[in-house]
């Protein structure tokens, strides 16, 4: 007789870290939480970099989209911070925040439908 041990059950947290649709959803939510808890957006970026190239297929477009969303938003917020000496910086910061929210919502909707991002390299939507 051999003693076979059952495979250990994966916790929900382990499933969040594995490449795939659930991980991408977590990344988008972490980006949105970044407006309240700033470090969460960086955690989302780390998840995206760790899992990019591991999932394959349509999910890869979401990792590219998420990474580009983060870095373009950082650029936009830096430019707006420089322009805050002028009033236009506040308007630009608001526009960048709306842009991030819209990209996260578009990404969440696409991953829920099981669809790829049409143009993940885009600066727009």
Which short descriptors sum up this protein?
125 residues; elongated
Question: Can you walk me through this structure?
Answer:
The chain is elongated and about 70 Å long. It has 5 helices and no strands. With 125 residues, it is mainly alpha-helical. It starts with 11 loop residues before the first helix and ends in a 12-residue tail after the last helix. It has one domain (14-113). Helix 4 packs antiparallel against helix 5. The chain has helices at 12-17, 21-33, 39-51, 59-82, 88-113. The mean pLDDT is 90.
Secondary-structure blueprint:
Blueprint: H1 12-17, H2 21-33, H3 39-51, H4 59-82, H5 88-113
Helix pairs in contact: 2-3, 2-4, 2-5, 3-4, 4-5
Summarize the structure.
The protein has 125 residues and is an all-alpha fold. It has one domain. It has 5 helices and no strands.
Please indicate the count of domains: 1
Overall pLDDT, averaged? Answer: 90
| Estimated radius of gyration | 18 Å
Main sheet makeup: none
What string gives the helices and strands in order?
A: HHHHH
Q: What distance lies between the first and last C-alpha atoms, to the nearest angstrom?
A: 60 Å
Count of individual beta strands: 0
Assembly level: single chain
- In terms of structural class, how would the helical and strand content be classed? mainly alpha
Instruction: Note poorly predicted spans.
Output: none
Cα shape: elongated
Number of helices: 5
């Amino acid at each position: 007789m051999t003693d076979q041990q059952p495979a250990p059950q994966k916790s929900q947290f382990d499933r969040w870290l594995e490449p795939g649709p659930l991980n991408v959803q977590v990344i988008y939510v972490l980006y949105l939480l970044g407006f309240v808890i700033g470090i969460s957006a960086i955690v989302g970026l780390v998840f995206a970099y760790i899992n990019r190239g591991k999932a394959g297929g349509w999910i890869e477009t979401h990792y590219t989209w998420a990474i580009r969303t983060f870095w373009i938003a950082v650029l936009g917020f830096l430019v707006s911070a420089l322009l805050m000496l002028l009033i236009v910086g506040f308007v630009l910061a608001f526009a960048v925040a709306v842009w991030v929210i819209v990209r996260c919502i578009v990404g969440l909707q696409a991953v829920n439908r099981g669809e790829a991002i049409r143009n993940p390299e885009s600066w727009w939507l």
